[in-house]
Amino acid sequence: MILNRIPKFLQNSLINKAHLPVLRTQKHLYSALSTGNRVKIVEVGPRDGLQNEKIKVPLESKIELINRLSDCGLPVIESASFVSPKWVPQMADSDLVMERIIKKPSVRYTALVPNQKGLHAAEKSGVREIAIFGAASETFSKKNINCSIDQSIENFSKVVERAKIIGMDIRGYVSCVVGCPYEGDVDSDIVAYVASRMYQMGCYEISLGDTIGVGTPGKTLEMIEKVSKRVPIEKLAVHFHDTYGQAIANIYASAGIRVVDSSIAGLGGCPYAKGASGNVATEDVVYLLEGIGCNTGIDMEKLVKTGEWISSVLGKDYGSKAGKAILSKLNNQ
Ligand SMILES: CC(C)(COP(=O)([O-])OP(=O)([O-])OC[C@H]1O[C@@H](n2cnc3c(N)ncnc32)[C@H](O)[C@@H]1OP(=O)([O-])[O-])[C@@H](O)C(=O)NCCC(=O)NCCSC(=O)C[C@@](C)(O)CC(=O)[O-]
């Protein structure tokens, strides 16, 4: 009988059978990625995708990438990062990127901000929405932003306080939500704690990052279940790296979530998470979502052409499976 109340796509999935006990207690989780829902994609390619590139990406290419992504119909594009250029040199021209991109009124152009200095620089460059970024692992927090989890929360609350005064919207990231490159498995209670602190301080959305891509559908679902007890599920987003090829499965398993982060052509990686591969490719996510009847509002043809183009700029193979397949069809028409 319980099965009848679960959407069809979950009824037939392994996730559903393996996790019925979880799903039974979390009715709101099943509404997930079900037919007819609109799912928002947050494109993180220009920031998460490029930040780890060893060779300096030309400013003009960064700008062209963001402008092309805007034309694809993506509603949110994380475009820049106002972090220390000593820590992440690739993002050092973020002010110029933000100043020179063509801003469409329908698109939100966001930027990472770690501290007051970054907030000030973002404000000067006309940024209207920022993202703070913490972690559920002490060691990762120290390696990535040079402070403990509690210190980071204290620092972020000052950034958020000031950002609210100047009318900015604020998103929060929690990294290492299932695993840490230094500490191994991560306790979901800590993820829930960091996420809830960010939500309480005024972040309108919390993105849960599987920074090193070690999550599997079962672990992901259990983590979301824990976090959603402290932060409303409609305020959560998922952010998967695809190191173990599980990202699409994890998104499919992220029952109840309506916001998915992804990166064009699967670019990406965190400089402080060695061995982590790129983010899940936006093209693959759009293919999944549209395939199960979710509306993304994204122009797939423009998207795959953008994915192929940026891959060639970076001298890489095109990293989206769906993108490659669609492109080869287009080329054979
Ligand atoms: C947080 C800090 C700044 C602390 O770094 P620190 O060294 O502790 O800071 P500090 O205050 O001692 O400053 C050191 C120097 O940096 C400068 N500085 C300080 N702040 C800024 C700033 N905002 N903009 C420009 N410059 C800055 C500051 O002025 C000083 O310069 P100096 O006096 O030596 O010439 C540093 O650790 C940092 O920048 N970390 C960022 C690391 C990063 O960007 N990681 C990747 C993003 S997170 C990620 O990818 C994960 C995510 C979000 O995608 C989700 C997921 O996948 O899990």
Automatic annotation (TrEMBL):
Listed EC numbers: 4.1.3.4
Name the record gives this protein: hydroxymethylglutaryl-CoA lyase
Originating species: Furculomyces boomerangus
Residues in Pyruvate carboxyltransferase domain copies: 39-304
GO molecular function, one term: metal ion binding
Keyword Nucleotidyltransferase carried by entry: no
Chain ranges passing through the membrane: none
Pfam families (alphabetical): HMGL-like
